Amino acid sequence: MEHKSRDGSPAVNNADTASRISSPRTRSGKDGTQTARISGRALSRTVDALMRLPGIGRKSAQRLAFALLTMPKEEAAGIAQAILDLKESSRFCSVCNNITEEPVCGICSDAKRDLSRICVVEEPGNILILEKTGIFRGRYHVLLGALSPLDGIGPEELKIDGLMDRLRAGDVKEVIIATNPTVKGEATALYLLQLIKPMGISVTRIAYGLPVGGDIEYADENTVLRALQGRREM
Ligand SMILES: [Zn+2]
To answer: What is the chain's alpha carbon radius of gyration, rounded to the nearest angstrom?
Structure first.
């Protein structure tokens, strides 16, 4: 996954991002030229711009662009303004790299949170999902990505130094690694384990398993294998 601010600057808004957004031609190619020829340059530019978002391919981008085109102008302007406001006021928390409008996010500044546990995640969005469960009362650390040597993402590109500084402060007794169960997420988890274990801090990994309400018959072999390995006494 791409990240715009690997240089350590906390603000999401930086010149690099601005230049990337002003020239949304990277994934344009032949299809983009065709869109421009058939439907006009403005639509083609919008499609190219939307395709810069994760998980949005050309078809989805075209559907979104048509939706923007057909909605009332004020509504479309509201979306544009919301994006500008987001870029203007949001930044990364200086402690955990969560998204916040303050220098330190609400979780890090909440005195009732358990200081002895840090849950490590890849993306700020992961915090929202973990918070929904309501069972974790510790704090978080967002790496802003996962190790991926082939994409040129090594430990220096992730927010690992900040995590180590927090651990050296001495309050933390357990680090829960909640990176994704992917090759990149696993590599990141193992790398962190090697760094943290020698500090005498307990390192745990979130369990893998079958989806709730799912059926073993439809799960892939790897998931069943992990679920079996992660079994616990009832
Ligand atoms: Zn924070």
So the answer is: 21
